[in-house]
Design goal:
By secondary structure, the chain is of the alpha/beta class. The protein has 2 domains: 7-132 and 299-328, Medium-chain alcohol dehydrogenases, catalytic domain (Quinone Oxidoreductase, Chain A, domain 1, Alpha-Beta Complex), CATH 3.90.180; 136-274, Rossmann fold (3-Layer(aba) Sandwich). It is built from 10 helices and 16 strands. It has helices at residues 49-57, 127-131, 134-145, 163-174, 186-195, 208-215, 228-238, 260-263, 278-293, 310-318; strands at 7-14, 24-29, 37-46, 66-67, 72-80, 92-95, 110-114, 118-120, 154-158, 178-183, 199-202, 220-225, 239-247, 267-270, 302-306, 324-328. Strands 3, 5, 6, 7, 8, 15 and 16 form a 7-stranded mixed β-sheet that branches. Strands 11-10-9-12-13-14 form a 6-stranded parallel β-sheet, sandwiched between helices. A 3-stranded antiparallel β-sheet has the order 2-1-4, with no helix packed on it. Strand 9, helix 4 and strand 10 form a beta-alpha-beta unit.
């Protein structure tokens, strides 16, 4: 599909009516950067669980009648608005929160967004890696570092082969922690080991609490949690005195917590990157950028789709594809 001057191709869906949530590739006006913004030619768009969930549940109905999805991406800056250094033109960047409370995300050939949400992508990092950072890596950082330094700490990351879990393993190791993780298959175990997990436990075939407690005799000080109801009992068994459980996925049912957690003086925190304080997100972005420059962060296996296949890309994330789902932007 070709475009006219001043237009672009984008995937878009209506937020209401009989066709709500139905994705289609359309020609629409190319945005222009406003004050404090940059215009980015998107090369790769990353898909996260919140992208398909919000689309399916009508969560963007208050944002606009039609929405271009996806929060994360990577590309290069082609123009800047007033107040932005013109020297940033041609800079390779990774993008975060591109569609949060806005009608246009990264599933488009161009996006205009605040300059701080387009972050320099070092030469050693591919667009694919950059497009997979955003929401997962910032979420991992918020889960790990909100409660102090990690040097020499023993940390448990549930779901170490997922995008957040993978980033959490690498960031925790980078800051001096020892990391254990839970996985559900041999394939996922290999991904977690490659990320640097010292202990990898298949919770489907091993007595996870016993194995983790043997590894961390005094318990783990930090847990990065993807499924609080499923892991509540395990967490209670392996958490150290004063330990913190950081949950980044909303529980799908009520959770019964043991009195033992009170005895441990345990802390529970809930992390939603979109509504987290801006200063915390900017601190995360700064650390992620440093880790990128140092070659600490690596890409998960990629599942690439064309823009015309974006519905299939969203379906792949919904169905739990192992690795990172990316959309190539023509």
């Amino acid at each position: 599909m070709s475009t006219s001057e001043g237009t672009m191709l984008a995937a878009r869906y209506p937020t209401g009516g009989e066709s709500a949530g139905a994705l289609a590739v359309v020609e629409m006006a190319r945005p222009e950067p406003g004050p404090g913004e940059v215009l980015v030619r998107v090369r790769v768009s990353g898909v996260n669980p919140t992208d398909w969930k919000v689309r399916r549940t009508g969560g963007n109905a208050k944002v606009a009648e039609d929405v271009v999805p996806n929060q994360d991406g990577a590309g290069e800056i082609v123009a800047v608005g007033d107040g932005v250094d013109p020297g940033r033109v041609s800079e390779r960047v990774w993008l975060w929160e591109g569609q949060w409370q806005r009608p246009q995300g990264t599933a488009a050939q161009w996006i205009a967004l605040p300059a701080h949400q387009a972050v320099a992508l070092p030469a050693n990092a591919s667009f694919g890696l950059g497009a997979g950072l955003g929401i997962p890596a910032i979420t991992a950082h918020l889960c790990l570092f909100a409660d102090g330094p990690l040097a020499d700490a023993q940390v448990l990351v549930h779901g170490g082969a997922g995008a957040v879990g993978h980033a959490a393993i690498e960031l925790a190791r980078w800051r001096g922690a020892r990391v254990a993780t839970t996985v559900s298959s041999d394939e996922k175990a290999e991904l977690a080991r490659a990320a640097g997990a010292e202990l990898v436990v298949n919770y489907r075939s091993e007595p996870a609490a016993d194995v983790i407690r043997e590894w961390a005799a005094d318990g783990v000080s930090r847990i990065v949690e993807v499924n609080l109801p499923a892991n509540a009992a395990l967490n209670t068994e392996v958490l150290a005195d004063g330990g913190v459980v950081s949950c980044y996925v909303a529980p799908d049912r009520s959770v019964e917590l043991s009195r033992s957690l009170m005895v441990l003086n345990a802390h529970f925190s809930f992390v939603l990157v979109y509504t987290a304080p801006l200063e915390a997100k900017l601190a995360a972005v700064a650390d992620i950028s440093q880790a990128l420059r140092e070659g600490v962060l690596t890409a998960l296996p990629e599942h690439r789709f064309t823009l015309e296949q974006i519905a299939a890309a969203h379906d792949a994330v919904e169905q739990g594809a192992t690795g990172k789902v990316l959309v190539e932007i023509p």
